[in-house]
Amino acid sequence: IIFEQTLISVHVSCSARWIQTFGKVFNILEPDTDLSLIPVHEDDKELLEDFQKNVHHNLHESKLFVELRLRDTSGLYHWYRIEASNLISSQGKPIYIIGIITDIDKQKLLELRLRTQATRDSATGMHNKRATEQAISRFLGMHNNIGPDVYAMFMIDFDNFKSINDRFGHAVGDKAIYQMAQIIRRNFRSTDIVGRVGGDEFLVFCTEPMPMEKIRERATVLVHQLHLQCGNHDAEDTPLTASVGIACNPNDGQNFTDLYKHADMATYEAKRRGRNQCVFYAELTVTEQQNARDSLLAEERK
For residue range 99-127, what is the model confidence (pLDDT) as tens digits? Predict the structure, then answer.
């Protein structure tokens, strides 16, 4: 789609493809004063405004562009790349802006799909380990909790999951992972950071500060609900449960590394105490902390 604007008269002309695509003429280079002429997506209005300002304040720039969503005659939003270039007079002054609008919807959807694959666990749809760590680290870097309530990190590790795979096969194990992941998701808000950080290990960071009583209540309900009977038609079902370790910010750590390490130690203690329960790092004795630390170091050496 080709268009041009005369800088002196602000007259705009466009190719026939413009009308075929959008159904009406509007000036993409000028602010939309009544907020109804330009069919730009709500989330992309600031991008368009910045583009319009750059076009008029940087007249000697050879080319400017922006990528955003516009609504077409079907009523659907598609991604477009809008480019604008200045034509200069013999006196060196800009007299025209000529532009082109290119449909990049398929390219954007492919980029989104590839980006999602890079940050999501394919089996559960949750954040993968790297994306989980980045999201939590970013949140902690932007929020300084000084109130009485705390942010909670839940480490969730399934009990004896290897025996499920060994006894019934990976198909049953994969189904169990998915079902347990859905239980985890239902127990937390959509704004909390939920990720799969290992084969049968999940991490949740609550982005709402809570009193310790509420965290304990949530953890107790979570452990109770994380219970499945796994099996097939050839053998008796085997129960699958989970151990949960909890570390809180800022008391147990002010960065991802410390919180993760302490939640991991609390999870180890939950398993040592018999599994299928939750343990808070803050409640570990000095001896329990040292035992957990030694055991985790031994596992890392393996």
Answer: 999 999 998 888 877 776 777 888 898 99
